[in-house]
Amino acid sequence: MCWGGASRKPQDAGIKATGSPPALPPAPSLSPEKLNLLARWQKDPARGEAMRSALGKVWNAPNTAIGLGYGLIGYGWGR
Q1: Could you give the CA distance from residue 67 to residue 74 in angstroms, rounded to a whole number?
Q2: List of residues 6+ apart from 48 with CB closer than 8 A
């Protein structure tokens, strides 16, 4: 029973009560030529990893600032 007092049945939400989920399309396969192109695309894996790490830190900086601000407000409020 839901909090509202009415129970939800699968057919209420437009979901089939029986049956399996739809099948996924087959995954595309990569030919050896495409694999070679992908391998040559990134010549220096260590440099690429460092770049991704730096970009990830820059991307997450606003979340960190918001979290620190929220934590400081909560700490101050609890004192």
Answers
A1: 10
A2: 42
Distance CA 52, CA 58 (A): 10
For 2, what's the count of Cα atoms within 13 Å in the CB-facing half-sphere? 6
* Cα–Cα distance measured from residue 69 to residue 11, given in angstroms and rounded to the nearest whole number: 45
* pLDDT at residue 41, rounded to an integer: 63
Confidence of residue 14 (pLDDT cuts 50, 70, 90): low
DSSP string, 3-17: TTSPPP-GGGGT--S
